[in-house]
Structures are given as structure tokens and as C-alpha cells.
Amino acid sequence: MTETFEHLFGGWNEAQARRWRNPDGSEGGIVAADARIDSALTIPADAVVWPRASIGYGARIGDGASIGPRARIGYGARIGDGASIGDGARIGDGASIGPRASIGDGASIGVQDWWLSGGPCGSRDAFWIAVWSPQHGVRWWVGCQWGLSTAELCARVEAQHGTSAHGDDYRAVIAFVEGHPGLARAKAKLASEATS
User: Is there a contact between 44 and 63 (Cβ–Cβ < 8 Å)?
Assistant: First the structure.
């Protein structure tokens, strides 16, 4: 490992960091001193791993990826080039996050989960992520709202936005996700696997 230095993560979070030394001896990205990373991992030179994050054995971190504070990347997970993993997000063992994806704070994605993200939306221009898992159905992360069911999100939209333009935006996003063909394929695949 290399010597530690003060680094300003995201332009606002100052913490001790070091330059990662990759297994092949090349210089890797900036890694918080208290991040837990398997020493066999390669961290690209332009990637950043924030304080208290952890990355499991066999994970692959893409060029320019940002692993947020307290994020947990599971064993064998793949994080695409330029992807951003939010504060406290959980990426399960073997899960795959595509290039330039933005995974919101506190989101949880497992290997069999289907997910979609977008934004900005609503009165606070929040980014949203919807995750479908066999165990929980569709759950939503929108701004500071974490892990809501579709019914809970609909109730909050009605209570906070009613028939306003912002409420219409949220209702359109909910309808888009619930009617997305990728979600239907994920459900069908699970049903097919259960019967074989």
C-alpha cells in the first residue's frame, strides 16, 4: 500500500486516502484509508472508493467508477465503467451494474434483481431507482425515500404532490417501470426457472 494523504471525496468529504497498488504493481485509484478491499482486486487509476466502503473478493470495478461512502460491493459483483454507487448502497454477490449507471443512496441490488434508474423527477429533481427482486417485488429509492413499495410511493406522491405537475411526473415514472418489458421478462424468467 502507499502512504496516506488527505483527500476531498466529491469535493466536500475530507478523509484519509491512499493510491491503491494493483496486484500487477500498477498505480490504482484513490481509496479511502478505512475502505475494506480485498488486496487481490484491481482498482482502475481513475476510480474512487469512498470512506467505509467495502468491496468483496473477485469484484470488478470499471474505469471511472465511484463507490460511495459505506457502499458494499459483494463477491464477484461487476461495476461498469463510469458507474456511481451511492452512499450505503448494497450490490449483492454476483450482481452486475452497467456502465454509467447511477445507483442511489441506500439502494439494494442482488444477483437476480431487475432494476432501472432515471431522473431528475419531482419537486426536488431527485433521481430514482426501482428494483424488483423475487423476495420483495418492486421497491423504490427516490431522494431520501428508501426501499418503498410501489403502493407506499403512490401514497406519498398523492399526499405530497396531489394532482400537481410533480405528482404527474412521479405517476408517469411509476407507470413506466410497472409496464416495462424488462420487468415482465425478469418475472417470466423467475417463473420459468421455478417450473423447470
Answer: yes
Spell out the per-residue pLDDT of the chain, length 196, in tens.
569 999 999 999 999 999 999 999 999 999 999 999 999 999 999 999 999 999 999 999 999 999 999 999 999 999 999 999 999 999 999 898 988 888 888 888 988 889 888 888 888 888 888 999 988 899 998 877 888 999 999 999 999 999 999 999 999 999 999 999 999 998 998 888 877 7
CA dist list (Å): 134 to 99, 125, 181: 24, 29, 16
CA distance 130 to 169: 15
Using only the alpha carbons of the chain, give its radius of gyration.
18
Four-CA torsion 85, 52, 111, 19, nearest 10 degrees = 70
Residues ≥6 apart with Cβ < 8 Å to 63: 44, 46, 47, 81, 82
Q: DSSP state, 95?
A: -
Q: Parallel, antiparallel, or unpaired: how do β-strands 126-133 and 137-142 relate?
A: antiparallel
Give the β-pairing of 102-103 and 108-109: unpaired
